[in-house]
UniProtKB/TrEMBL annotation:
<feature type="domain" description="HD/PDEase">
    <location>
        <begin position="251"/>
        <end position="353"/>
    </location>
</feature>
<protein>
    <submittedName>
        <fullName>RNA nucleotidyltransferase</fullName>
    </submittedName>
</protein>
<dbReference type="InterPro" id="IPR043519">
    <property type="entry name" value="NT_sf"/>
</dbReference>
<dbReference type="Pfam" id="PF12627">
    <property type="entry name" value="PolyA_pol_RNAbd"/>
</dbReference>
<keyword id="KW-0479">Metal-binding</keyword>
<keyword id="KW-0819">tRNA processing</keyword>
<dbReference type="InterPro" id="IPR050124">
    <property type="entry name" value="tRNA_CCA-adding_enzyme"/>
</dbReference>
<dbReference type="GO" id="GO:0005524">
    <property type="term" value="F:ATP binding"/>
</dbReference>
<dbReference type="InterPro" id="IPR032828">
    <property type="entry name" value="PolyA_RNA-bd"/>
</dbReference>
<dbReference type="InterPro" id="IPR002646">
    <property type="entry name" value="PolA_pol_head_dom"/>
</dbReference>
<dbReference type="GO" id="GO:0042245">
    <property type="term" value="P:RNA repair"/>
</dbReference>
<keyword id="KW-0547">Nucleotide-binding</keyword>
<dbReference type="InterPro" id="IPR003607">
    <property type="entry name" value="HD/PDEase_dom"/>
</dbReference>
<dbReference type="GO" id="GO:0008033">
    <property type="term" value="P:tRNA processing"/>
</dbReference>
<dbReference type="Pfam" id="PF01966">
    <property type="entry name" value="HD"/>
</dbReference>
<dbReference type="InterPro" id="IPR006675">
    <property type="entry name" value="HDIG_dom"/>
</dbReference>
<dbReference type="Pfam" id="PF01743">
    <property type="entry name" value="PolyA_pol"/>
</dbReference>
Amino acid sequence: MGFDVSPVAIELGKLFKEKGYELALVGGPVRDLLLHRKSHDLDFCTSARPEEFEPILRRFGNGGFWDMGRKFGTLGAVRRLPDGTEVSVEVTTYRSDTYNPDSRKPEVNYGDSLEGDLSRRDFTVNAMALRVPDLEFVDPFGGADDLHKGVLRTPVSPEQSFDDDPLRMMRAVRFVAQLGFTIEPDTAEAIERMADRIRIVSAERVRDELTKLLLADDPRSGLEALVDSGLADIVLPELPALHLEIDEHHRHKDVFGHTMMVLERAMALETDADGPVPAPDLELRLAAIMHDVGKPKTRRFEAGGKVSFYQHDLVGARMTRKRLKALRFDHHIVEDVSDLVAMHLRFHGYVDERWTDAAVRRYVKDAGHLYDRLNRLTRADATTANKNKERMFSAAMDDLEARVIELKKQEDFDAIRPDLNGGQIMQILGIEPGPLVGKAYKHMLDYRLDNGPVDEATAREELLRWWNEEGGAAGAGTSAEAEASAD
């Protein structure tokens, strides 16, 4: 079989061969060659130890060199080509990764053969290699056949493979999403039996696999595999909890099925690179799968067979924040996704009663930089089978977005501030910096959003009215102006 191999791989292979070392392209790049896909990064394994091949890689990497993976036997470099493009390469000594029962990190044991190295890889479709520069194809476990069938199978027994590295169970469901493969029955059964072992893997590594799954072309299939395998019970228990039983009158939907539909609808609303929500958007997809996680905790059966989920948006936001923190997501992602969950019902009142301009300004101001994502999440969440309701909802959202465009022509929403600043508030009320200033500032911002800009005298009058109504003058030193107003 012929291979359209990157000249970079051939060149590096020749350098290793000159020094008497074996070098083979392995893993994803070989799989991609068989699938006729391009790989921007090239992974290799070699018979040489890191200290032996480091000089080769340093000379080869005219665009940079790194050794963060040295303790795992891995060094990397960037090769800058004449046309200005760059290719990243990573080279790893033949090895096997194993875990002690209570360890979160793999122990590295160097091997002495390519076949031995391939036997310790996650799945047969990733246990193929291409020796370079001679282009000898090595496939001891039938990976090419499994690739053709679209099957995920471990090179050795799945029990041994998942015991060596439990994260491979997460990679299995990730490949379902990325490659559209199915998990071979014995492998799937082993994942179900051993799912609890994922607990020894660090949250960061689990998070990275979940992120790759969500950013894949078909995250729904991957998430369904995550739930079916039992892995979600440990790494994302809020998801399987959405499998609420449907009441006998079918008055509410299966929340898990609805959530998967919302995810797909949200993905369809992502934009190209020049749009406000370029695909694939991690925050939008996370918000889609988490937006209803508060429903199981808030479900109530009301009179007449009705079912309510009062405040599931706020409860869900707290649950989302807790889960994403546990998975070690970056702070801005935790806050953004939690805010999207908290706000995902905000628009619904607009359908019944068209908002005032003040309410529209408040909605946009509260959404802030999440405005475009929030609208897409809201649209995706409208999964009613009632075509008339669907048209009404879509028309209302179109109307809101058109009004926002017109209002923004009149005023920069991002620049909206109260008509009185913090210094003026403290002077008028005669108070020192502290929580009271923040509370007063928020009130004046709300007043500004509701009423538009007013002159300073009107703003002062409103501040003093609010201050006296709050009883603030009784608990703090007040200015003469405030005391006079109180009299």
